[in-house]
Amino acid sequence: MADISVLGAGSWGTALAALLCDNGHQVVLWSHRKEQAEELNSSHVNQSKLPGVGLPEKLRFTSDLEEALSEKDLIVFAVPSKAERETAEKCKAYLPAGQRIITVSKGIEEDSLMTQVEILKDVLPDAVVGILSGPSHAEEVVLRQPTLVVAGSESRDLAIFVQELFMNENFRVYVSPDVLGIEVGGSLKNVIALAAGMSDGLGFGDNAKAALITRGIKEISQLAVAMGGREETLSGLTGIGDLIVTCQSHHSRNRRAGVYIGQGMKTKEAMDKVAMVVEGVYSAKAAQKLGQKYGVELPIISEVNRVLFENKDPREAVLSLMTRDKKKEVELYKWSDFR
C-alpha cells in the first residue's frame, strides 16, 4: 500500500483518487477551496464535477496543503495546466529532495512554452517527475470502464512505480521514456478538438471530422518530432488515441467549446457556457509559437488561433484550409519509388 496525495479536486483528480483507493492505497485529495473539501468529506460525492457518483469512504479530503504533502510516496498534480506553476510554487516548501511526482494535466505554458513536466522540473528541480496521459475521460474512469493510458518519465523506476500503483483490471497502464512526445500529443490534441467542435457546430459531417483528425495528428507529430519527441509515440495512445476521443466524445470540454463557437459564440462566451477549464484555448497560442520556433507549418492550429483570438468566422477558417496551395499527402513520396 502506498500513501498518495492528489492535488486538484476537479473531475480528473477525483476519478484518479477514487481509482487509487480502489487499488488499496491510502489517498488524500486536496482542494484549494476549503468549502469544497468540507463538502466532499461530508457527502463523498463531487456533485459539481461527477454528479451522482459515490466516492470510496476511505478517501480523505483536505484544503491544507502541508497536510496533503506530508510524507507521500507519490504526489499527483491534477490541477488545470494554467495553475501548474502556481501550485508547484506553493508546494516547494513542503517537499523533500527526491519526491516522486506525476502530472496528469495537459497543456503548454504560453509565455515560457514549457510543458507541464518541464514546469514542475523548473520549479521543483530536486523532484523525480513524470506524467500519466492518454484517452481517459474521468466520467468513464470513475465508473470503472476500460481505459488505457501511458506513464512517462525519464526515470524508468518512476514510470514502473506509477504503472504498478494505477493499473487494475479496468485501467491498463503502459510505460514510456518519451515524455516530450506524450506531452505534445496531450496538449495539442485539445487545440484540434476545438476545431472538431467548430466543425460540428457548423453542421458538417463525418468527412470533415475524419479530415481534421487525420491532418491534425500530422501537425502534432511533425511538431513533436521537431522538438525531439518520437513519431511512434504520436501513433499511440497519447497521440492518435487521445486525439480521437477528444474530437469525438460528448465528454470533451474542448470539443464542446468548439461546438458553441461554431454556432456563433465568442471564445469567452463559449468557455463560460462549458463552465470547466478549456485547456485547448490556453495551449493554442503556445502551439502556434512552437510551430514558428521550430519551423513547422500548422495550418489547422493557425486557423483555430485566428478564430479564437482574432474573431475570424469559423466558416472563413474552413475556406482558408480548403483553398490552401495544392500539396502531396506525404511529401517524402516520389513516383519513381513506386514503379
Summarize this structure as a short list of keywords or feature phrases.
51% helix; 339 residues; globular; eight-stranded mixed beta sheet; alpha/beta
Structure, explained:
By secondary structure, the protein is α/β, with parallel strands linked by helices. 51% of the residues lie in helices and 12% in strands. The protein is built from 16 helices and eight strands. Strands 3-2-1-4-5-6-7-8 form an eight-stranded mixed beta sheet, sandwiched between helices. The model has no long low-confidence stretch (mean pLDDT 97).
Radius of gyration, in angstroms, nearest whole number: 20 Å
Q: What quaternary form is this?
A: single chain
Q: Give the biggest sheet.
A: 8 strands, mixed
Q: How many helix segments?
A: 16
State the helical fraction: 40-55%
**Ends: how far apart?**
61 Å
Q: Whole-number average pLDDT?
A: 97
Total strand segments: 8
**Residue ranges: pLDDT <50 for 5 or more in a row?**
none
Global morphology:
globular
Strand order in the largest sheet: 3-2-1-4-5-6-7-8
Strand content: 5-15%
**Secondary structural class:** alpha/beta
H/E order of the elements? EHEHEHEHEHEHEHEHHHHHHHHH
What is this structure, in a nutshell?
The chain is α/β, with parallel strands linked by helices. Helix content is 51%, strand content 12%.
